[in-house]
Amino acid sequence: MRKFAFVLVTALALLSCSHPAPPVGRWEGTYESDDVMVAVRLEIGSDGQVRVSAPDLQDIGAASAEERVQMRDKLATDLATGWESVAPRTMDFDGSVFRKPGGIAPQMIWKAKSRQMSVVVYLGTRPGAYIAMREVSDFSDSPWRS
């Protein structure tokens, strides 16, 4: 009986130390304020490797509505044409927060119950922008139109 209890306690201790598996899938999203635009693609493979791309435009406060349409199209094109060159990378994942290995700042936030992913984009000295992502089966030509 003692052996069984010891094995059970040891197994539970090892399970509590194991790293949770990151969610597998694809997400895309956008962020737009008066002064900034960002388009984001994210893919997490079954091996846990993360591919993310987030082209942005800053200091666009003086842009007209027509120019903003062109800017969205440019970011969508940049995202699509540059995607194949995005290298997969390893991230630390604690079950809800992704960080660069050994890093402190959150890079992505995962809410498993609602299956909601957010990507955090840091632009210069601005506070991080939390971008809500949409889970997709395949990436669209433009995340602005999704």
Describe the structure.
The chain has helices at 2-17, 65-82, and strands spanning 25-32, 36-44, 50-53, 56-58, 92-93, 97-99, 106-111, 116-121, 129-132, 134-136. With 146 residues, the chain is α+β, with helices and mostly antiparallel strands. β2 (36-44) and β3 form a beta hairpin. It has one domain (23-136). The model is unreliable at 4-15 (pLDDT under 50).
- Give the count of structural domains: 1
Fraction of residues in helix:
10-25%
- Which stretches are low in confidence, meaning pLDDT under 50 for 5 or more residues running? 4-15
Report mean pLDDT, rounded to a whole number. Answer: 89
Strand count, sense and closure of the main sheet? 5 strands, antiparallel
* Discrete helix count: 2
Task: Give structural attributes.
146 residues; alpha+beta; five-stranded antiparallel beta sheet; 10 strands
What secondary-structure arrangement, pairings included, does this model have?
Layout: H1 2-17, E1 25-32, E2 36-44, E3 50-53, E4 56-58, H2 65-82, E5 92-93, E6 97-99, E7 106-111, E8 116-121, E9 129-132, E10 134-136
In brief, what are we looking at here?
By secondary structure, this protein is α+β, with helices and mostly antiparallel strands.
